[in-house]
Design a protein that fits this description.
Blueprint: H1 11-20, H2 37-42, E1 49-55, E2 65-69, H3 70-73, H4 89-98, E3 105-111, H5 124-140
Helix pairs in contact: 1-5
């Protein structure tokens, strides 16, 4: 997920593009979700594990990687103040679950952005950390880090 027009906000898409260059097993599907999380997630079927990669402001240093198990966060979502005009990713996942379309395992890999401002390129800090972040993703997919 992400927006390529706002520097580090596009980290998820930049990582998908790097993964597309690799020889990956046929049971692994890469989806560029852009900013359309609800549309993309509603179209998912027959998936055992969903890994969502996106920029996430968690207060850490730029390029910090956060690994969040969605199932552990579910209880913290407050639907009393839900607005259909601005759904967060967690709210979208909860709605997808209520529709019976959520995969059994959902993992969010968030990357702390350094800068979210107009621009097509990642900041140098995130560019430097791309190999490390790719390694984290490949490990979650139970693949070796040295695929190319």
């Amino acid at each position: 997920m992400g927006n390529l027009l706002y520097k580090d906000e596009g980290i998820g898409i930049h990582l998908i593009r790097e993964l597309e260059k690799m020889k990956l097993p046929p049971n692994l599907e890469l989806i560029d979700g852009g900013v359309g999380s609800l549309d993309i997630l509603l179209s998912l079927e027959n998936i055992d594990k969903l890994i969502i990669i996106d920029a996430l402001k968690g207060g850490g240093a730029p390029a910090t990687v956060y690994r969040i198990d969605y199932q552990e966060l579910e209880a913290e979502i407050d639907f009393n103040n839900l607005s259909l005009h601005q759904l967060s990713l967690l709210e979208v996942l909860s709605l997808i679950k209520k529709l019976g379309k959520l995969p059994p395992k959902v993992l969010i890999i968030g990357v702390e952005p350094k800068e979210i401002s107009p621009g097509l390129n990642l900041t140098s800090r995130l560019k430097e950390k791309l190999p490390y972040i790719l390694g984290v993703i490949l490990k979650e997919c139970h693949l070796k880090e040295d695929l190319s």
